[in-house]
Amino acid sequence: MPPNPSTSDPAKDLKPPVVPYEDEKVLVKVQNLSVGFGRGQFLAVKGIDFILEAGEVVGLVGESGSGKSLTALSLMGLLPHGANIESGSIFFKGQDLAKLSPKDRRELCGKHMGMVFQEPLTALNPVLTIGEQVAEIFCLRKGLPKAQAQKAALNLLSQVGLPNPGEAAKSYPHRFSGGMRQRVVIAMALALDPELVIADEPTTALDPTIAAQIIWLLRDMAKSRQAGVLFITHNLRILAGLAQRVLVMYAGLLVEQIQGDFSNPLHPYTRGLLKALPPNPSEDHLVRLTPIPGQPPSPSDHFAGCPFEPRCPEARPVCAQALPPMTQLSPGRLARCHNFA
Amino acid sequence: MLSLESVRKYFLPSQSLTGEIAALFRGKRKLSGGVQAVKGVDLEVRNGEILGLVGESGSGKSTLGRLMCGLYKPDMGRILFNGRDLALFDKREFKDFRAKVQFMFQDPASSLNPRFTARAALTEGLIIHKLGSKAEKIAKVNSLMEEVGLSPELAGRYPHQFSGGQRQRLCLARALSLDPTLLIADEPASALDVSIQAQIINLLLSLKEKRGLTMVLISHDLALVCLMADRLAVMYGGLLMEVFPRSLLGQVDHHPYVKALWASIDSTEKSELILEGEPPDPQNPPPGCPFNPRCPEAIDICLAKPIQMIPLGADRFCACHKRNQGRNGDPIRP
Question: Percentage of chain A surpassing pLDDT 90?
Fold first, then answer.
């Protein structure tokens, strides 16, 4: 157990939380996290465990209602009204986030985590200019005087590839296209060189050629800052070449974790997801896709067994009776399925 | 079946009364800030085919789709349905045309009336077109619902009681209720989850075969269009860039924009083909070819001269100065 958290901190004037933790490579450790609505009647996230190492890009895949966004929001401490963490804990560099005071938590999340949201227009303040919004971060978190903060903001805006940063800083968000707005949101998320960046469907609202630009910008920016990235998406294909590890969520549960090449998933759900995508254009024409029958469950549905059992082509009687455990199949590869249990 | 001849569509900014008065006082009678969404498109939809209309937001693909089914009227050019000009249809003929050409919208939640049950949504068209007796209408609703994979027992439900995929099935049933010959589907699957998308796409393909429908599929997803379409028409900045049979994809020297779109599907490697920059501002389009500011192959003429569709080989049409050098011709209708 090395006592010194010696991960490189690029922002020299920001001190990382000095707490010894088990493995210095582990940036985020989520243990048995459950998120529920109301008084815990509806669990949208049902006890998930995962770790994210420093500088690693992890993909979190799931359909709407699978709990992937709530997982991200609970990391950031931004759960919507009515949603609560019912159990489990989140460690950030060995520090239990639940045990921090609201002020310390705010400080930690503000400086060491950044978030890129799906819809860049709602993530930006419509009544502040882009320059004011970006400079605000430096004023608030680094205590820079206004002129210096503005300079830093301009520098940052040019790094994310805004064509005319000086002009852009004076404009309001509505004047920007979706891709440009997303660049600004990425700039803000990475302003303080955070160790963790959470990107929640950052390209879903964008056109394909712009989406490709944004993905590579995010990747390059995170790489140059050695930030860990949690990339949330419903499209498994985007993650090829981007993520080192993929976590698949279904009905609030992690059902599979794949390290490296994920063209051959093991869980029937992940396999179904891959098969349901249109094939590459070079392949066959007019073939029928293989959809997953039925519909994703809603958080109010209760399952005695595996939540995928009603839609699973390989379901056996045992699947309806007991929830299969997450089973390690090889290093870095886990699946929650009775086929492997 | 349907052919468009140099169709153009402008949108003027919605002018409030006060805005109009202010413009009068300032002596500006001319409305400014208008947008030309479709800038002269020649295209043919052939009997029995699936034509894929691909483009990014603002490319004019949805406007073109709406022009095709008569939801918008072209400001210039003609739209011919089975050889007859839409603009010359009388009221009755236009009503018949609208039964024959149906539109399916992207977002099933907002295109269904929340106060109409599924049954009411499916019979509305039958009532307007005075088709069938009461018993026949009921039988029609049942058979339509079965056709799209919904249980007829659900006919009494309201849209909010259906899931997203079921709502899109209902929209499809509604579009089919008047037995159209041409179905225009605007992003039919993009509002749905991946596992549900595939269900809707398979349903569209099998209905197309069963009913012998002609389809126009509007989408920004090249992978999806390539799966379904027989021919692809790629739009950018209100103009067609290239029209080609699907079998030619990747076999020929495509328009640079088509190449870039294709590269953006496959993100495993950072391709050199990832485009810089943004689609053009529709209010302030670049001179010459709309793609020239982002085009890696742009030459001088691209900045100066508007592009023209020129046939390049069998059934392929391309609007690119570089590829069309040395070939001249009148505007061609692909």
Answer: 42
Residue A139 covered by a domain: no
Cβ contact B278–A180 (<8 Å): yes
* Residue B302 token pair: 């691209």
| Residue bearing tokens 């982002």 | B294
Total domains, chain A = 1
pLDDT of A24 above 80: no
Tokens of B153: 């027992």
CA A185 to each of CA A107, A162, A229, B214: distance values in angstroms, whole numbers, following the listed order:
19, 12, 15, 43
* Radius of gyration of chain B measured on its C-alpha atoms: 22
Domain that holds residue A317: 26-121+195-336
Would A150 be classed as within a structural domain?
no
pLDDT of B28 higher than 80: no
Whether A209 sits inside 8 A of B270 (CB atoms) is no
CATH architecture of B2-229: 3-Layer(aba) Sandwich (3.40)
pLDDT at site B326: 66
Indicate which CATH number applies to the domain containing A256. Answer: 3.40.50.300
Q: Give the mutation candidate from B193, B209, B294 for the A interface (greatest A CB count, under 10 A).
A: B193
pLDDT of residue B50: 94
Q: What is the pTM of this model?
A: 0.83
A237, A289, A300, A301: best to mutate for the B interface, most B CBs within 10 A: A289
Which residue of A207, A277, A295 is in closest CB contact with B163?
A: A295
pLDDT tens by residue, A276-314: 888 776 556 667 888 898 888 887 788 889 999 999 999
CB A132: neighbour CB atoms within 10 A? Answer: 18
